[in-house]
Amino acid sequence: MAYVNPSGEFSRDQRYIATRITADGRDGYPVEPGRYRLVVSRACPWANRAIIVRRLLGLEDALSMGVAGPTHDERSWSFDLDPDGRDPVLGIERLQQAYFARFPDYDKGITVPAIVDVPTGRVVTNDFAQITLDLSLEWAKHHRPGAPELYPAALRDEIDRVNKHVFADVNNGVYRAGFAGSQEAYEKAYHRLFDRLDQLSAHLAGHRYLVGDTITEADVRLFTTLVRFDAVYHGHFKCNRAKLSEMPVLWAYAKDLFQTPGFGDTIDFADIKRHYYEVHREINPTGIVPAGPDFSTWLGEHGRDRLGGRPFGDGTPPPPPRPGEEVPAGHGATG
């Protein structure tokens, strides 16, 4: 598969399936507990957002989750973690099958996260940015008691503004550096990334969270890039001005979130490393997966409590992951 743009700057294909699952069903897909399946890979930062939000909001009973393996080929993500290589609910071997069931001539990326309509086996949406917002707003009737407000009305404009910059310069910025096809394009992306990280660091030096005094959608979106930074982006994508662990404010902020229920307990470092180093053969031809770094450092002191804040606002932490949804032993920060 080709990722690097030989002519220079990497450009992400953002032609996603814009169908939405809503409370009123205006796109033909009403919110119905048990009807849909969220398909993810723990390796993918965009899918990781949906995993975290689903867990924070307590939507496990309403929206089941299928987990694809960390690697894929040109035919898409596969369910090779399941015993018979098939998703136990959808009965398919590859996510591609759900896309083709709805769009037989689908010619865009077969991406995660994706939500599939279980009765028909057809993909509904893969619009990752809208998926998590809709889980907060359209699925509100099915949130657990004590679920936090991740996209509160009073803060939406500010959250949207922060998210816009974080996406362009950080979430997608690491890819723009890693998949650049020229020195000029790489250096442009590199400086844009670290300029934004410096700005975020300056803000977070005096604020525990990005917007307001509680965890919001903005923190979820930044976290999934930061948690992958030292493991893959620093070396694999040449984002090497400094490691996250060498940027004191961002490192403390990321550790604070990692140690918050619903964040670190969704992180599979083994899958993350396998995905990037094995799949991106253009920039890692051998497919060798690095042995490090030491992930136990994510459990160290962060000191962010001194800034105050209430992680879940008036809500409560989520309970531990459901049986069968835990990160495999040895894949997280403790092993």
From TrEMBL:
User: Which molecular function terms from Gene Ontology are attached?
Assistant: glutathione transferase activity
Q: Where is the composition biased (Low complexity)?
A: 326-335
Record domain GST C-terminal: where: 152-279
Q: Where is this site: Lowers pKa of active site Cys?
A: 233, 276
* Positions of glutathione binding: 77
Residues in the signal sequence: none
One cellular component term (GO) for this entry is:
cytoplasm
Give the protein's recorded name.
Glutathione S-transferase
Organism of origin is: Paractinoplanes rishiriensis
